[in-house]
Amino acid sequence: MPSTSGRVNRGPAAASQNRLAILRSARRLFTARGYHVPLSAIAKDAEVGQGVLYRHFPTRLDLAFAVFEENFAQLEAIAAEPGAGAFGRLWDRLIQMTVESAAFVEMAVDARRNVPEYTGGTRLQSLIQDTLPRAQAAGLVDHRATVDDILLAHRMIYGVIVTAVDPAEVGQAVDRASYLLRRQST
């Protein structure tokens, strides 16, 4: 006797809803369990078959790019804001995203290694290049700081996040690392 799960296969008519469900589940599970969460867990959480997931996103990176494109859209909107404060808001949001989902950084590292045409690093670098000089001119950031310094500081804070023994202490550790970085630039 055939088993029924209560779900009806609506085929192509459900494609856009399936894609959205996969993206929501992927964002939630990447955040909760990291970039290397099994894709089968994402499909199960989205209530789609693995074939459906792979039809929409043939690789883990394809799925991650789609999920994290929203992150870049947020960062780009902040960088487009006028004024000297855009850099500080950009930095704060970048760190918040990294704390919320270290998978964002894991995806970027994986992409740099495996996808030669990946532009995420260049995009982030451009956002910093666009906002840092305004903050420096206003005296909000040390005039000696370079884009490479900012990217290094982000990598350092990412290291603090992923090596924290107690997840409840991540916020304090990030605040402490940020404080130490600020002290070094004065």
Provide a descriptive summary of the structure in words.
The protein contains nine helices and no strands. The chain has 186 residues and is an all-alpha fold. It folds into two domains: 11-58, Orthogonal Bundle (Arc Repressor Mutant, subunit A), CATH 1.10.10.60; 60-184. It is globular. It starts with 14 loop residues before the first helix and ends with a helix.
Summarize this structure briefly.
The protein has nine helices and no strands. It has helices at residues 15-33, 39-46, 50-56, 60-79, 86-100, 103-114, 120-137, 147-163, 170-184.
- Report the principal-axis shape: globular
Structural class assignment: mainly alpha
Distance between the termini: 74 Å
Structural domains: how many:
2
Order of helices and strands: HHHHHHHHH
Strand content: under 5%
What helical percentage do the residues reach? Answer: over 70%
Please render the helix and strand layout as text.
Layout: H1 15-33, H2 39-46, H3 50-56, H4 60-79, H5 86-100, H6 103-114, H7 120-137, H8 147-163, H9 170-184
Output the keywords.
single chain, 186 residues, mainly alpha, 70% helix, globular
